[in-house]
Amino acid sequence: MNPQFEARVIGAEQITASSRSIRFARPEGFSFLPGQFILLELESRGTEGKAAEITRIAKPLSFSSSPTEDLLQVTKRLTGHEFSNAFLSLKSGDVIRFSGPYGSFTFQGEHEKIAMLSGGIGITPLRSMIRYCTDRGLATDIVLFYSNRAEDDIPFSDEFEALKGKNRKLTIINTLTRPGPAWKGRTGRIDANMIRELLADYPERVFYTSGPKKMVEAMQLALQELNIPASRIRKEIFPGYD
Ligand SMILES: Cc1cc2nc3c(=O)[nH]c(=O)nc-3n(C[C@H](O)[C@H](O)[C@H](O)COP(=O)(O)OP(=O)(O)OC[C@H]3O[C@@H](n4cnc5c(N)ncnc54)[C@H](O)[C@@H]3O)c2cc1C
Question: Residues 103-126: pLDDT tens digits?
Fold first, then answer.
């Protein structure tokens, strides 16, 4: 059992209509690797029928922040359910409890060339890794394929633009499944054809894919179609969204 920590919430930010980040202070003695997650425990005051009852619910959330940043950050897709609503109501000054860090879906510059395949909220551990590589000035060549519904649904969109300016080894390919008329980028889901077309050196890369189960399974099938061996695929599945 990893140690339990307490931390004070420093800020909360709605990053798209359906996802929200909270930032909190790093407790003494806590460290993590880019891509790892915590078990965040929140208090829920109950809904109709059990008004006064307080329950504690713990769920895994990946860090969307990098160890190179002062504050810790997690980002959650809002579902309207109990834990999600407790997350939504967090505000500066609140104290949260968590344990961790957990997980082996990490990257600290071990490979020269990687590709990341993700959709929606699955970006959180990848944002942590990208920010880490950029802050540390690592030479890793990173190509992120990132699928979302519409322009407004792309989490960290402005930030990724800024990171591209700081990291010449970072390429971001956004693709939208329901683009507005002004969208000039790629459209449709990420698949083997898109990877083949836009990533000529794909046989040389190690692939990182994270997000809801269906998305990660689809990416695995695409990579199989491209004959990428399992030994070159790293994955993190977020259950509960399919
Ligand atoms: C390693 C790891 C890292 C993760 N990192 C992240 C992360 O960074 N960000 C993130 O957002 N999530 C992450 N997750 C997923 C997260 O832990 C939760 O599973 C997810 O957020 C859903 O939790 P929830 O309480 O909002 O929804 P839940 O209540 O668990 O509901 C999930 C789904 O179950 C169904 N469902 C449940 N209850 C009902 C109901 N009463 N009525 C109708 N349908 C229902 C719905 O389909 C709903 O969409 C991660 C998971 C893992 C394992």
Answer: 999 999 999 999 999 999 999 999
Query: Could you please report the per-residue DSSP string of 37-106?
Result: EEEEEEEE---TT-TT--EEEEEEEEB-S-TTSSSEEEEEE--SSHHHHHHHT--TT-EEEEEEEE-S--
Q: Which two tokens stand for residue 95?
A: 């104290």
Cis bond upstream, residue 101 (ω within 30): yes
What spacing in Å lies between the alpha carbon of 238 and ligand 1's midpoint? 8
Q: Give the closest residue (by CA) to ligand 1 atom 19.
A: 240
pTM over 0.85: yes
Phi, psi of 101 (to 5 degrees): -80, 155
Q: Which two tokens stand for residue 82?
A: 């109990």
Q: Are 143 and 199 a contacting pair, CB within 8 Å?
A: yes
In angstroms, the CA 83 to CA 42 distance is: 7
CA distance 124 to 76: 9
CA of 222 to the centre of ligand 1 (A): 25
- Whose tokens are 């394929």? That residue is 145
